[in-house]
Backbone:
């Protein structure tokens, strides 16, 4: 295998899985099916982390995204009213004509940048960060931004609850 124990065939299988689930998230008409496809996509991303020998990120992905965020999304879907299903013609509008070439151009640009960049080889010291280095960075160097993000997420959650709450009094 090139660059140690990286398995390109397994990566291709997982990448196709993640892309298919990502398409399912936006293509399904039933929002619950989209949420389940999102969970499968999160599982695929955790599998990518496992393939890249980053067990800590895989566990964080499973705990936070698959466990917590997906359950919150499913709970929010079940607690809010579902709007009536729109006809298929309303999903594609004038913006689709511009969005497709822009998406293709962005994908080509990203591919060119990744292929021509001089990234260190797999397994170098920059890719294998220890748990203590992550903890030091998170709770000493980046403590204020970490706490700031937690307050922003709390405000977003409170705002979502206020917006989703049904106004029966009025």
Residues:
């Amino acid at each position: 295998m090139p660059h140690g124990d990286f398995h390109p065939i397994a990566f291709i299988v997982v990448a196709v899985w993640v892309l298919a689930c990502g398409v399912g998230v936006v293509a399904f008409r039933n929002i619950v099916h989209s949420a389940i496809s999102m969970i499968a996509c999160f599982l695929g991303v955790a599998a990518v982390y496992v393939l890249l020998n980053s067990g800590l990120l895989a566990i964080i992905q499973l705990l936070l995204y698959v466990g917590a965020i997906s359950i919150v999304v499913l709970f929010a879907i079940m607690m809010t009213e579902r709007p009536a299903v729109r006809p298929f013609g309303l999903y594609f509008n004038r913006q689709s004509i511009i969005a497709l070439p822009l998406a293709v151009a962005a994908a080509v640009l990203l591919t060119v940048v990744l292929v021509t960049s001089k990234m260190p080889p797999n397994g170098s010291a920059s890719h294998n960060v220890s748990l203590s280095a992550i903890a030091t960075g998170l709770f000493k160097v980046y403590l204020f931004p970490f706490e700031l993000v937690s307050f922003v997420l709390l405000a977003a959650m409170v705002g979502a609850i206020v917006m989703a709450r049904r106004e029966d009094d009025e």
Summary: The mean pLDDT is 80.
